[in-house]
Amino acid sequence: MFSWINNQILKMEWLSDLVEKFVVNIFNLDINSRLGASIHFFIYDSIKIFILLSVLIFLISYVQSYFPPERTKKILGRFHGIGANTLAALLGTVTPFCSCSSIPLFIGFTSAGLPLGVTFSFLISSPLVDLASVILLASIFNWKIAIAYVIVGVILAVIGGTIIDKLHMEKYVEEFAYASNQLDSDIDELKVKDRIDFSKEQVKDIVKRVWKYVLIGVFIGSLIHNYIPENVINAILGNDKWYSVLIATIVGIPMYADIFGTLPIAEALVAKGVGLGTALSFMMAVTALSLPSMIMLSKVVKKKLLGIFVILVTVGIIIIGYTFNFISYLFI
Amino acid sequence: MEIKILGSGCKKCNELEENTKKALEEMGLVAEVIKVTDFKEIAKYGVMTTPALVIDEKVISKGKVLKKEEIKEMLSK
């Protein structure tokens, strides 16, 4: 029963079959031919991601409406030490967060007296581990990989934040982030209808924001799938190449895309024999670090702290990549 | 009346500004609409999600783009 739900609803095998019929009968293409397989991948993956995206964001936004950043801030204020870092990383996965809000959020956290490390744990996990992305990972790969991804993502956020705490970087934060005399703004009381409205708005908003990345991602994925020769990919990113994870991470860092856009690329890479860890480190690098987010952050933290943040996250992602490659036989 | 739109200049902030101006116009109200993009200033209002709407130094909404009708309702209070 579980496997039927998993295959039909989560992996949407019915859709794959339907698109296959469409490609074969309407386009008159052989499903095993290059073009046929590419078109199948493109149509099937795009539709699947958009359906899952809309349904998931709706459900998840409903949960998120219980955790506005103001509440997260209050909850975090009650905890200390590594417990606070862990909680920050976990709340990062459910607090609605858009990169354009990252600065007010950062200031809100620091001026409330939250330790810097706790704020960074939140900032690392928030874009990296998103509830919707976890379910998509389960759809495209499997549940073991999805859960492992959450666990390593949270661990990275906790360790990264803890190290920043221990380095005592407080002086590298622009002064106004502390000085601003923040009023404790109240948490809006929401009714069920408000939460549903909020969730609908989130769906519209996110789909509007990410559809380009999804289509580009699926397009690149279908190229990788069928046009780029396997030996070329393996020469650069092959499992036996020691530098594969390094390249995937460094290429991914400056890129700005949503996790939903990177998933189809990771999917195609893994299908071509690229190591699971290599594909995951690419995904993590794209989502956790990007030029726009670094530029934003540089407005409240000084270069040294920004540099340490980038290095910590990069090293973490590389370690995760190699670890996953090493133990990937457990997952696939 | 003084109205402030808090936000770093992202797309949503512009939408909120536009909706506010339309609401004012339709109600025949004259008010100064000021865009606040400086993070130091934004932080003073205790706002953690942008865009936010401030009417006479009071935070009316945060983290969402209010629709024209919703702003009208706020303005008539």
TrEMBL record, chain B:
Q: Does the keyword Disulfide bond apply?
A: yes
Cysteines paired by S-S bonds: C10-C13
Q: Where are the transmembrane segments?
A: none
Q: Which UniProt keywords apply?
A: Disulfide bond, Redox-active center
UniProt cross-references to InterPro entries, sorted A to Z? Thioredoxin-like_fold, Thioredoxin-like_sf, THIRX-like_proc
- Residue intervals of the Thioredoxin-like fold domain: 1-75
Q: Which residues form the active site?
A: C10 (nucleophile), C13 (nucleophile)
Q: What is this protein called?
A: Thioredoxin family protein
Q: Which organism is it from?
A: Soehngenia longivitae
